[in-house]
């Protein structure tokens, strides 16, 4: 999943970036309101973490503009503004959740998982497809009840596929959702991850749709 963090304070941003990258997310960082608007214009984000007190443009204005342009990604406001009126204003402007600084990183990750599940209509915390099961909270994958160890990129790729198991994802879509700004992506990087997943899960689990991309196998 690809996230956008909008935060001008480096001391807050760095731990958030590190924590969520360990969770397997690709995450970009915008440092002011104008940069956030430009980033959101690309339409590639699954979740946005938005500070309110931003340089160049206030976070509420960024939020209003994004929703007015039809932006649908869930948004968690992260702010030191803890007055009830501020919380109400953020939620009324289109935010989906609200965390007051300082916040616990584990709680932020749990709230992010909940919103991402809701975005794809997944009510249960564990994704299942046939004999595959993926638990985002514990970062575990099981195949027929046996735990399969995956590195973070493999886990993230499987997470994308299992959320929408009948959808065919192009290589470009997978690259966009797995990698953030400035990360080098080799021409065969996705193929390497797919090959590794097939080796661990079974070659039949991931289907290549020739000329299009990849999806999970169909369940009988």
Automatic annotation (TrEMBL):
GO terms for molecular function: phosphorelay response regulator activity; transcription cis-regulatory region binding. Gene3D superfamilies: 3.40.50.2300, 6.10.250.690, Winged helix-like DNA-binding domain superfamily/Winged helix DNA-binding domain. The keyword Transcription applies. GO terms for biological process: regulation of DNA-templated transcription. Residues 124-218 form the OmpR/PhoB-type domain. Residues 124-218 bind DNA. Its main location: cytoplasm. Residues 2-116 form the Response regulatory domain. It is found in: Cytoplasm. The keyword Cytoplasm applies. SMART domains: REC, Trans_reg_C. One of its GO terms (cellular component) is cytosol. The modification 4-aspartylphosphate is found at residue 51. Keywords: Cytoplasm, DNA-binding, Phosphoprotein, Transcription, Transcription regulation, Two-component regulatory system. PANTHER family: REGULATOR OF RPOS (PTHR48111), TRANSCRIPTIONAL REGULATORY PROTEIN QSEB (PTHR48111:SF35). This is Response regulator.
């Amino acid at each position: 999943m690809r996230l956008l963090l909008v935060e001008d304070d480096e001391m807050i941003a760095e731990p958030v970036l590190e924590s969520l990258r360990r969770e397997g997310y690709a995450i970009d960082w915008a440092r002011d309101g104008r940069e956030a608007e430009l980033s959101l214009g690309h339409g590639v984000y699954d979740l946005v973490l938005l500070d309110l007190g931003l340089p160049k443009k206030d976070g509420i204005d960024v939020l209003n503009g994004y929703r007015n342009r039809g932006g649908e990604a869930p948004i968690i406001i992260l702010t030191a503004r803890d007055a009830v009126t501020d919380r109400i204003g953020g939620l009324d402007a289109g935010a989906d959740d609200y965390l007051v600084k300082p916040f616990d990183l584990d709680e932020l990750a749990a709230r992010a998982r909940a919103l991402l599940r809701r975005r794809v209509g997944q009510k249960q915390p564990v994704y299942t497809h046939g004999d595959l099961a993926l638990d985002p909270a514990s970062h575990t994958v099981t195949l027929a009840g046996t735990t399969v160890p995956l590195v973070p990129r493999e886990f993230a790729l499987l997470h994308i596929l299992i959320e929408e198991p009948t959808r065919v994802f192009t290589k470009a879509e997978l690259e966009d959702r797995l990698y953030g700004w400035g990360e080098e992506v080799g021409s065969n990087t996705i193929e390497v991850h797919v090959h590794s997943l097939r080796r661990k899960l079974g070659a039949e689990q991931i289907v290549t749709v020739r000329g299009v991309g990849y999806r999970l196998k169909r369940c009988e």
